[in-house]
Amino acid sequence: MYLITVFGNLLIILTVSSDSHLHTPMYFFLSNLSFVDICFTSTTIPKMLWNIQTQSQVITYEVCMTQMFFFMLFAGLDIFLLTVMAYDRFVAICHPLHYMVIMNSKICGILVLVSWIIIVSLFSCTGLGVYLSSAATHSSHSTATMSVMYIVVTPMLNPFIYSLRNKDIKRALNSFFRTPPRKVLLVFH
Description:
By secondary structure, this protein is mainly alpha-helical. It has 8 helices and no strands.
């Protein structure tokens, strides 16, 4: 599931960056969401797989705090990017004639930057405080199952949900995989 998540999201990033028809705000946000989903799953899943492989559940305090910081950072970015994507679609549907004026590249960059800044300052600090002040720990099977569903399944499904139902992405993927390899002419002097 982790490999599907990483490769599926990487495919979206490569497809959007390689097709000039997809250089629009919607796909800019989609490729950022794919990047954040890769980072989000990569904060916890490799350590979890290592723990399963070695039958060890030991984690140092520093590694735990680092993992929690990045986990909360990328989880918050996921939420903000989905919000920005919803706003993008709202503008496209409700104000189609003004869409390119409202959602220009400068505004898109600012929205993504603001998402990063807000998440770092708001969610990471408050979430870390809540985590550190929590006296009770819960390690039930249902909590673990829900965690895996949130951490692994949702980011794995995002490429399918947001792109494979989209005809522009399907067209770009077809051209991406059908593009013949470029011939390279080597000249020796």
